[in-house]
Structures are given as C-alpha cells and as structure tokens.
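Handout, section B. The chain below has 127 residues.
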Amino acid sequence: QVQLVESGGGLVQAGGSLRLSCAASGRTFSNYAMGWFRQAPGWEREFVAAVTFSGNSTYYADSVKGRFTISRDNAKNTVYLQMNSLKPKDTAVYYCAAEFRPAGGVVVTTASLYDYWGQGTQVTVSS
C-alpha cells in the first residue's frame, strides 16, 4: 500500500500562485510514477500533470502547460505541483496519484491506470 497526503490548497486570487505537495509513505516512492489530477463540481476527474519515477520526464495537460510545473524529490518521498498564473477555471479538488512504474520514460494520463490516490486538496481561484 502507498499512502498519499496532499497539502497546500487554498483560496487565491486570479493570477496568483499555489504550491501543492503530496507526501507518500508505505512503499518505495521511486518505484512510482506520480500524477496530479483535478475534479471540479459536475465534471469528471481530469489529468493535470505527471512525472516519471526518476523525475526526468514530465507531461502536462494543454490547459496548464506553461503555468504549472510538476516535480518530485525522491529523498523526501514528495511530489509537488507549482501552479502559477492561476485562473478561476483552475478551481477544483486536486488529487495526487501513484502508478507502479519503476522504469522507462512513459507517463500515464488515464486516471484508471493509477494504483493509489490521495484524499484531495481544494484549490479555489477567485476572479
């Protein structure tokens, strides 16, 4: 089992920034690719960003490319999502997820392929 705990959400004005963190425990963190997803009320959960087990490769949804940055620190068992130039449409509950993938440069954007999920953290962007 892998336990994931997100933090860093909150209320911010449009144009502002937030940094989300996701702390992992339970298994070898560096064996997992990590992803961030979000879900707004009435919408399906959508992919935001992902990073490979090593941190060498990242992938972003078009809607956040150039504004969000995903990174990881395997020594701290933590993955981050730096969110800049936030927009009201970024308002959602943000979830981190782990997929067992200890090798390769492939990142997965499909939520159903992830093995473990955190409880989510609310991000609200006011206009």
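Note. The CA atoms of residues 68 and 83 lie 4 Å apart. Compare this with the example in section A.
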